[in-house]
């Protein structure tokens, strides 16, 4: 993990297109501004993990559906 110190209104760059700016610091809370191309999804980590979990559950559900349909058609030949 790279750890950087930044002050309010200072930024870091990720590649050529993503800029993260420190907007405010209030106690233990830091507000970030993120400038990135529209095709890049930006989520808080807990939301990102929730989306990944839902996607994995959907894949499992689709696999079960395909297995069930396969079994159904094999039984009804």
Sheet of most strands: 3 strands, antiparallel
* Span between termini: 57 Å
Oligomeric description of these chains: single chain
Number of separate helices: 1
Strand tally, please?
3
Measured by DSSP, the beta-strand proportion falls in 25-35%
Summarize the helix and strand pattern as letters: EEEH
Main location: cytoplasm
Family: Belongs to the CsrA/RsmA family.
Keywords: Bacterial flagellum biogenesis, Cytoplasm, Repressor, RNA-binding, Translation regulation
Subunit structure: Homodimer; the beta-strands of each monomer intercalate to form a hydrophobic core, while the alpha-helices form wings that extend away from the core.
Describe this structure in words.
The protein is of the alpha+beta class and 77 residues long. The chain folds into 2 domains: 1-38, no CATH class; 43-77. Helix content is 40%, strand content 26%. It is built from 1 helix and 3 strands. It has one helix at 45-75; strands at residues 11-14, 18-26, 29-35. It has a 3-stranded antiparallel sheet, with no helix packed on it. Strand 1 (11-14) and strand 2 (18-26) form a beta hairpin. The N and C termini lie far apart (57 Å). 0% of the residues are buried. The model has no long low-confidence stretch (mean pLDDT 89).
């Amino acid at each position: 993990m790279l750890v950087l110190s930044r002050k309010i209104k200072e930024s870091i760059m990720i590649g050529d297109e993503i800029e993260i700016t420190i907007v405010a610091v209030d106690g233990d809370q830091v507000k970030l501004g993120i400038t990135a191309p529209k095709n890049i999804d930006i989520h808080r980590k807990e939301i990102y993990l929730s989306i990944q979990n839902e996607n994995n559950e959907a894949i499992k559900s689709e696999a079960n559906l395909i297995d069930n349909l396969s079994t159904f058609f094999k039984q009804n030949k």
